[in-house]
Amino acid sequence: MSQMTSPIASRIAGPITNKLTNQAANQAANQAANQAAKQAVAVNQAVNPAGKQAVSVHIITDHIVADEFARPLTLTVIGGVDKDGNADDVDEVEIMRGEIIGIVGPTGSGKSTLIADIEQFAVGDTPSGRKILINGHVPENELRTDPRKKLVAQLSQNMHFLADMSVVEFLKMHAKSRGKDPDLAEKVILLANTLTGEPINPAHQLTILSGGQSRALMTADIAVISDSPIVLIDEIENAGIKKQEALRLLSGEGKIVVVVTHDPMLALMASRRIVMKNGGMTKVISTSEEEQRVFKDIEKVDGWLTGLRETIRQGEVVA
Ligand SMILES: Nc1ncnc2c1ncn2[C@@H]1O[C@H](COP(=O)(O)OP(=O)(O)OP(=O)(O)O)[C@@H](O)[C@H]1O
Ligand SMILES: [Mg+2]
Predict the structure, then answer these.
(1) What's the CA-to-centroid distance between 122 and ligand 2, angstroms?
(2) Among 47, 114, 160, 298, which is disulfide-ready with 70 (CB 3.0 to 4.6 Å)?
(3) How many Cα atoms occupy the beta-carbon half-sphere of 8 within 13 Å?
(4) pLDDT in tens, the chain (319 residues)
(5) In what side-by-side order are the strands of the sheet with 280-286?
(6) Helix (H, G, I), strand (E, B) or coil at 199
(7) Taken in order 16, 22, 23, 28, is the CA torsion positive or negative?
(8) CA–CA dist 103, 235 (Å, integer)
């Protein structure tokens, strides 16, 4: 049976696995989800005819009232305690859709723990005691537990597909299970290939993708097929993909992107960064204009280094 290793991958695999093992039940669920999707799209278009299609369309279901959905998505982290039980210095951080927010801090300072709090939509039930709100409210239990309604996608260093099918078969199946056009598979592959070096061949088995190719494919899949409006990324420094392009792609889709990073370029791409120490959120730094200028310089240097790297990768000589 198809299986994948990462949390997001298993979330994607979940509906597909169900589909294979329990078709009748799943068909009914699919119909219900599609129906909800249509309603959600209708609501969104009514309020935002000129705007982009909502990224959270079919995971927002009918138990969320229309005006709730029409409001822009916000994610709020309500402070808890650090490792010594002292209150977080930061009481509350509200993150808007389309925003990239960084998490920085020394090793062991609690960065992954904060990511995990968001991933689980903590309600004071984790060691940090933090609470997560969506659109200012505690999310319903269903949003925390039902993979179909999950609002969060996660990208991590160690991500490989173990599904026994080709890239294009997997993407088509995933699109269908989400009530979307299977032809989106081609778009995902094209996008993924802008993020990775060696192009992904649609006919290749998923299992032969490299780590970088897998992450590129997953990033493009999150942008195009999975509607998860929140993307959590824990240290992709050595992920083998064009990191800043991946972040731009995801935030450009109107997603909230939370990224743990010490890469100055990624940290300064974020509009703000949460500074962690001893398990606590100590402060939130807004990226200043001066830092934005530094970011532009870093980007130039990075472009130059990327070019050199590519030359060496292609087996050519640096002129
Ligand atoms: N607020 C907290 N309350 C209690 N324990 C915490 C808290 N924050 C972090 N910890 C614990 O501290 C340890 C280190 O945290 P974590 O793994 O999140 O650090 P990190 O910043 O991600 O480190 P690294 O840079 O090495 O990945 C973990 O065992 C975690 O459970
Ligand atoms: Mg960590």
Answers:
(1) 18
(2) 47
(3) 28
(4) 333 344 434 443 333 333 333 333 344 444 444 444 333 333 333 333 333 332 222 222 323 333 344 345 899 999 999 999 999 999 999 999 999 999 999 999 999 999 999 999 999 999 999 999 999 999 888 777 776 677 888 887 666 666 789 999 999 998 888 888 999 999 999 999 988 878 999 999 988 888 888 888 988 988 888 878 899 988 766 656 777 888 888 888 888 999 998 888 889 999 999 999 999 999 999 999 999 999 999 989 988 988 898 899 889 999 8
(5) 152-156, 230-234, 256-260, 100-104, 272-277, 280-286
(6) coil
(7) negative
(8) 10
Ligand 1 centroid distance, CA of 124 (Å): 16
Our measurement of the distance from residue 123's CA atom to the centroid of its chain's CA atoms, rounded to an integer in Å, reads 21
**In CATH, what class is 7-287?**
alpha beta
Alpha-carbon distance of 237 to 260, in angstroms, equals: 9
Q: Judge if the beta carbon of residue 98 lies within 6 A of ligand 1.
A: no
- Cβ of 83 less than 6 Å from ligand 1: yes
Residue nearest to atom 15 of ligand 1 (CA): 110
Beta bridge partners of 93: 77
Whose alpha carbon is nearest atom 25 of ligand 1?
Answer: 107
Compute the distance from residue 283 Cα to the ligand 2 centre, in Å: 18
